[in-house]
Specification:
Elements: H1 8-12, E1 18-22, E2 25-40, E3 46-58, E4 70-73, E5 76-86, E6 91-98
Antiparallel strand pairs: 1-2, 1-4, 2-3, 3-6, 4-5, 5-6
Amino acid sequence: MAFGDDDLPFMLGPPLGVPIVIGASTAFGIVDESGVGLFEQAGGRPELIGKSVVVTIQSGTLPGLATGVAINVNGTGYLVRQYRRADDGGLTLIECVVRA
């Protein structure tokens, strides 16, 4: 079974997807939070572990998406570190950092 761009709103929406807000625009996306080693000791063991937050949305659903812009992910404020289109361009991956 093949999936197309028309299927993305259903795949990224609730119950898996959460609200992603930039300004007055809201889209739904899937959030991936994972631990990332920031500083490594000799032998490759992380000395400090941080949190990586990557949000996947349907491309074109958040006007105003830009590096450095404030983004609200399911009620938590972040800044867009960078973003890029994935694979065929139907999805956009947004790397977020905690807003200071």
